User: Fold these one by one.
Assistant:
Number 1:
Amino acid sequence: MIEPPTFSTERLNIRLLEQRDIPAVIKYYEDNREFLEPFEPLRPKNFYTREFWSQKIDKGLIEFSYDHSLRLFLFKRSHPSQVIGSANFTQIVEGVSYSCCLGYSLAKSEQSNGYMTEALQTVIPHIFENINMHRINANYMPHNRRSGSVLKRLGFAIEGYARDYLMINGKWEDHILTSLVNSNWKA
């Protein structure tokens, strides 16, 4: 099996979760529950349990090994065992589209420090060059201006508006559709 990639920036380590990270990822989601809830799907009842995350970590590794996803988490280099965010590249499709979907979250306490931009500027070249994606799709709710700003800084272009696009926090939400295209893509 191919070793999962790890990324380092001046301030961050970015990698797949390991079993030893279970307490840290549970703490991340518990500490940010109220903050993230308006932007994410409803959680299963066992979401905040060791068993759930143990299976999720194993599933993430299997998905990575089959080129279906790359589910990364952000750790500050100054606190290498503390999860501060996630950046997931899912629905990886080759064939006719060579595309994937990007979703991300960041701790409330870490907002406005440029961490997500820093992380994605580091990982996106890997998605384009090593995974050979032609296109990354990312969508955000119109009132989530922070997310829109991150995508704009990264060069994502707005492509449309989808009504009732995703069920977020138990209700259908409109989304602004964006993408970033790899102009150097090679077959």
Number 2:
Amino acid sequence: MDFIYSFISPGFLSQILVGLSRTVILFIVASGLSLILGVLRIPNVFHGSLYMIGAFMSYTISVAFGGGDTGFWLALIGAPIGVALISLVIERGLFQYLYEREHLMLILFTFAISLVFGDLVKLVWGAEYKSVPVPQVFQGFVSLFGGLPFPKYNTFLLFMGPVVAFALWLLVTKTKMGKISQAAAVDREMVGAVGINVSWVFATVFVIGCLLAGLGGALVAPTVSVTLGMDHSLIMEGFLIVIIGGLGNIWGALLGALIFGLTQSLGILIWPQFGIVFPYCAVIVVLLIRPTGLLKSTW
């Protein structure tokens, strides 16, 4: 009976909500990775490094403006834009010449860039832990489900998830750029043949995908210690989410993030010592049942 009660207790509901908060970050980062994979066919290994840089930029901007509410909102805007500018330089300077190369070469190339970024972050920000304060407006708790206390900032994250998902849906399905990107993902040669500059289409998609990585880093910064290495586990989780959701499928990324985030939270609740294993077991089960992913792949 105690086991059954644990599934309807406030602790269970709280853990589910925490898992959903984690899901939002995973989805935002994985959706950018999925977008790049779906259109450009690039397995961007340094996507996690951009997430880390977004968190460090958020720290710098927040500190520069006093660490208050103004600093937080400016960081939430400025960090993703800074990451987007970095990605634009990389895409125009390097990637536009490598789109036709083999995937193995692209993996090795992007992995090398991730190593360079790791050293650059250490050079610029040092090896010490950084912390971004939760803004005053999001400090404290809100009452959910008849009295369950839940952090206001996590509630803000739960709000951001649907906003980003809806914005991506509008971008991909309702804008000219989105429709051109979908066409380029299927037949880039034909898109180029009708007079569209495919190179700049790829650049735009790449920058948007990387901006999402920076946004994920800026959003997670007030909830974790901003430090070197925070990109390592995130990029592995991001690729797993993209794979189980369906390569290049944005809604698949959302579904994969939900599976990953919720199974991790439930695992911690059920078996804390091995909670981290649960999402990977879920990935194995999904791939055994649906080797191509839960939703249709764009590859």
Number 3:
Amino acid sequence: MFLDHFDQPNVTPELFDVPPHPHIGLQTVTYLYEGEILHTDSLDYQQKVYPSDVNWMTSGRGITHSEHVTELQPRLHGLQSWVGLPQEKRKIDPAFEHFSKDVLPTIEGDGLSMTIIAGEIDDKRSPIPTYQELVYVDIRAAGGTTHEFPVDPSHELAVYVSGGEIRIADVHLKRYDLGKLSTGDRFQFETLTDAKFVLIGGEPLPEPTVIYWNFIADTLGEAKQRLVDWEEGKFPPVRLYEKISTADRTGDEDEVMKLL
């Protein structure tokens, strides 16, 4: 339903501090290429996500969480996506799960590495449970690589390029490009340079779906009411959230420049 690609050098706690905020009706999926982020939520989970690990949070009827870095990151590079929950699952209990990169199946080839974050590719299935059939594959390949594998023709799929350049059929895609795929039962790509990209999508959500602020809901009225609930303090608090300052961590205010 939503995809955020972030890539920034020299990220301090002051630069990356997303304070407690609410979600309903969706799952947030955080996946990093470089750096680390601390997740803290209203269920009292506190978990760092590292490169190629997955933080998978289910908001259901309502959750509050924060995300920030706790120390200088030479480079913070990754993706966060929102998975829309099926209509009958949008009011389930909130939950959080962390999955180490060691449990995610991979497919290796000549100049090719694929990590299956969600779904199944070539008879290898991710252990991450989902409420609908999803596809989320991290693909990294050297320039000049061509590869093909089967996909479910009923799925809606897209490709997002995080780095490098690729070609799908006769379409050239470069970094920051999102390409929606046509229907078909096979996915084939060619890398024009060293590249990393993700294949995302899955089972369509045919029922009415509204995206409003941080919410996925059945109607706009419901989403607006939940915003009012947030403003009135009706969402659970993130008790373990603590704002971090670089100056506080050094414990040496004399290192901070001052006007003389």
Number 4:
Amino acid sequence: MADKLINAALSDICLIATDMDGTLTQSGKFTPALLQALTDLTAAKIQVIVTTGRSAGWVSGLAAYLPVAGVIAENGGLYYHNGEQLLTSLSSITDLTSHRQQLEEIFQKLKHKFPYIQESADNRFRLTDWTFDVQPLQVKQLQQLEQLCAQLGWGFTYSNVQCHIKPLSQDKGAGLLQVMRQYFPQFTLEQVVTVGDSPNDESLFNPSYFKHSVGVANVRDYANQMQHQPTYITSAAEGEGFCELAAYLLKNKLKSANQIER
């Protein structure tokens, strides 16, 4: 990865937008190495936004306790900015109650065809999407679910954890662009690197918007299931892969600072 990243001149990166599960986590947990990497990035003035499929309820705590600039929840539906108590809606939903009812109706239609799918434990804490467990679904079944949602006028995506029924236009990439315009207008897209590991991160790999995208090594498990692929892939998987990227960016930042001093 390093040689390619050198050619991409990532020493100018000021913002990292990263997935969480399978990208920041290692075997489902945050490690001391990850927390240190996030702390070191903040100290080096490289801001981090977590962009996850996890629910609004989970994410409000993450935004407060992790050393990050903010957290995008529900695959681009909502944003919590560090230091602010209120969330920002990134999805054009006018009536949340009606929206949740519609999502449940779609889920019941999917369940009629796939009776073994199970609502996710955190679904009750959600506002903009509806989730069910990705296990034990196979790729063919996931493709069928996506087609069914499209026929019903809804979007569908999945990660290594959950399947998401969502508004058609709602995804991580669109949410990130909106957050950048509103909260980080000082940064250009050339100064952003996006990081992920699974199909619900695909919009972060779209080269039309994000030139610098990185997949941690386990993204290879989904290589045949995504149209957009990350530009670079780390040697290590999961959180260790993110720490690999962080170490590289910090090294480049230090090198650039030393050159300026000379």
